[in-house]
Design goal:
Menaquinone_biosynth, 2 domains, D-Maltodextrin-Binding Protein, domain 2, EC 4.2.1.151, lyase, three-stranded antiparallel beta sheet, disordered C terminus, 14 helices, Chorismate dehydratase, alpha/beta
């Protein structure tokens, strides 16, 4: 008699930047084997750490905090080499003059908040005052000198004439380091890999097929993004084409450097290892 497993809980971020991974995912073919939980990145990070979610595209920083309990799907991330177009710092003065500034941070992010701190501390020698705020540009800028926005909030704000200077953190990271930056990585709890390896393989294959179909023809994604958020067809084609959903050696090298800097500055309390899943992972993990 075959053992009946519980449903695997997949976390989904409600940002357009992860759409290609989910857009054509055949949820119906898995039936009751899957449960989908939609949250903002910080909520998803916490749920994953507590074991309330089994798989999800969590913040790269959140993987670093709990990497011993996780594995990473290869070929799946939200990465950029230079401009990411949705991780944006809006500021009134040039970056080098933000030493005594108050910077408003969104409550929806972990990776980009720490990326900003790495850039300003390590490369500019600055220690500004950071405060958290709801991700709305105008209210943030009423009480702060700069504001960080991510995801669709950043995209909408970039279309407005805010009168601010705008720094793309992906572009700044690549300019300073020459490396890729991975903002989100698709993570699986090790326990789930051990207990349900066959389902994990099928889920990985389904994600890969969704990514392939999405990027082969962006038309439907672009139309849905325009309907939901606004903007032009040209904007969204450029946006989805600029982002990379790969997680190979180049993306992994950039992420290792991010983790190294985060550990050096005390944002992470230890060195981080990238535990990459493959079909034989269950053998490796349980040996």
């Amino acid at each position: 008699m075959t053992k009946k497993h519980r449903a695997i809980r997949i976390g989904r971020i409600d940002f357009t930047n992860v759409w290609p991974l989910f857009y054509y995912f055949p949820f119906s073919s898995f039936g009751s084997e899957l449960e989908v939980i939609q949250q903002v990145p910080t909520q998803l990070n916490r749920a994953m750490a507590k074991g309330e979610i089994d798989i999800g595209p969590i913040s790269s920083f959140a993987y670093g905090e709990n990497f011993e309990n996780y594995m990473l799907f290869p070929h799946m991330s939200v990465s950029a080499f230079s401009h990411v177009n949705s991780i944006l710092l809006f500021h009134r003065k040039p970056l080098e003059e933000l030493g005594k500034a108050t910077i408003a941070l969104p409550t929806t992010s972990a990776t980009s908040v720490n990326l900003l701190k790495i850039i300003l501390t390590k490369f500019y020698g600055l220690e500004p005052n950071y405060v958290y705020a709801l991700p709305e540009l105008r209210p943030m800028m009423r009480t702060a000198d700069a504001a960080l926005l991510i995801g669709d909030h950043a995209i909408r704000a970039s279309w407005e004439d805010s009168g601010c200077l705008v720094t793309d953190l992906g572009a700044e990271w690549t300019r300073l380091t020459g490396q890729w930056m991975s903002f989100a990585v698709c993570t699986i709890r090790r326990q789930t890999v051990e207990q349900q390896p066959e389902q994990i393989r099928r889920i990985f294959d389904a994600f890969m097929e969704s990514k392939r179909k999405s990027l082969a023809d962006l038309t439907r994604l672009v139309q849905d993004a325009q309907a939901l958020i606004g903007g032009t067809e040209a904007y969204w084609r450029h946006y989805f084409s600029t982002l990379s959903y790969e997680f190979g050696p180049k993306q992994q090298e950039g992420l290792k450097l991010y983790y190294r800097y985060a550990a050096e500055l005390g944002f992470l309390d230890r060195e981080v290892s990238l535990n990459i899943w493959n079909d034989n992972s269950v053998v490796r993990v349980t040996e």
